[in-house]
Design goal:
Blueprint lengths: L2 E5 L3 H13 L10 E6 L1 H11 L6 E5 L15 H6 L2 E5 L2 E7 L4 E6 L2 E6 L5 E7 L2 E9 L1 E5 L7 H4 L11 E7 L10 E4 L4 E5 L7 E5 L2 E3 L2 E8 L5 E5 L5 H8 L6
Length: about 250
C-alpha cells in the first residue's frame, strides 16, 4: 500500500509526522493509495478541499482538539489499521451566491454553508425551499445548511439536529432567531434546493461561508447537495463515524 502523509503546522502534528516517516515509506498524494492526514477537523476539511479531486481515501489521525473526523493517533501498524477500516462516503454541498456587485460566485462545503450578519443589526432573510417560500422574513443572526458530517460542528452549536451518515437528509438551522420566535429549523431531504435571500442588503448586509471560504455582501444564496462529487473517509471499525454521530445524540454533561 502506498501512503501519502500530510500534516498541519501545529507542533504536535509536526512531531508525529517525524515519528511516522521514520518507519513508513511515504509518497506524494498523487501517487498514493491512501492519504494520511495529521491534524484536527479543520485541517481535514482543508485536505478534502485540496486533494479530494484525486479520488483517494483519507485516513485522519488526531493531532488537534476534538477530532470528530479523525482516528486516534498511533505510529504502529499503519498499513494494517488502514486495511481494517470502514469507508464512509461524503457528498458536499454546492453553493452559488449572487453578490451586491452583481458578481456570481460558487463554493463547495463538506460541513456547512452558512449566512451571517455583518453589522450589529440582525439580518432579514427569506427562506425558500424547492421554489416555495417557507419563511417570508427570518429575523436572525444567520442561517445555515449542514451535511450529516457537519451536523456535529457549528450546526450543533446553533442547536441544530445531529444527523446520522447515510440518512439522506440535510439540516436547515437558524442562528439566534428572533422572528419567527419558535422556529428551530427543519430537516430536509438531500435532494432539496435551498435559497436564502437577503431582504435588506443595503442596511443589513450579510456574508456567506462555504466551510472556510467566505464572500461578503450577499444578495442571495442557492444551496444543494452535489451527488456528482464525493470523498472517502476511513475510520477504525471500533470507532466509526456512524458510531460517533450516534453517540453524540446521547452525550450528556459536556
Amino acid at each position: 500500500m502506498k501512503i501519502a502523509c500530510i500534516h498541519s503546522d501545529t507542533p504536535t502534528a509536526v512531531e508525529r509526522f517525524s515519528l511516522l516517516k521514520q518507519n513508513q515509506d511515504l509518497v506524494l498524494p498523487e501517487e498514493a493509495d491512501t492519504i494520511l492526514v495529521l491534524g484536527g477537523d479543520g485541517y481535514m476539511l482543508h485536505s478534502l478541499h485540496e486533494f479530494g479531486h484525486l479520488g483517494k481515501p483519507f485516513y485522519g489521525m488526531n493531532c488537534g482538539t476534538y477530532g470528530f473526523l479523525m482516528n486516534d493517533f498511533s505510529e504502529d501498524d499503519i498499513v494494517k489499521r488502514i486495511q481494517r477500516t470502514k469507508k464512509e462516503i461524503l457528498h458536499p454541498l454546492s453553493m452559488r451566491a449572487t453578490l451586491k456587485s452583481g458578481d456570481i460566485t460558487s463554493g463547495v462545503a463538506f460541513n456547512e454553508v452558512s449566512l451571517f450578519r455583518r453589522t450589529r443589526q440582525t439580518a432579514n432573510i427569506a427562506v425558500i425551499v424547492n421554489e416555495v417560500e417557507r419563511i417570508s422574513r427570518l429575523v436572525c443572526d444567520g442561517a445555515l445548511v449542514a451535511t450529516p458530517a457537519g451536523s456535529t460542528a457549528y450546526n450543533f452549536s446553533a442547536h441544530g439536529p445531529i444527523i446520522p451518515i447515510g440518512s439522506n437528509v440535510l439540516a436547515l438551522t437558524p442562528v439566534s432567531p428572533f422572528r419567527p420566535r419558535r422556529w428551530n429549523g427543519a430537516l430536509l431531504p438531500h435532494t432539496a434546493i435551498i435559497r436564502f435571500v437577503n431582504l435588506d442588503p443595503q442596511k443589513r448586509p450579510v456574508y456567506v461561508s462555504a466551510d472556510f471560504k467566505e464572500f461578503p455582501d450577499v444578495i442571495s444564496v442557492d444551496i444543494q447537495e452535489d451527488r456528482t462529487r464525493q470523498v472517502y473517509l476511513l475510520f477504525d471499525r471500533d470507532h466509526s463515524l456512524d458510531d460517533r454521530i450516534f453517540n453524540e445524540q446521547f452525550a450528556v454533561g459536556d
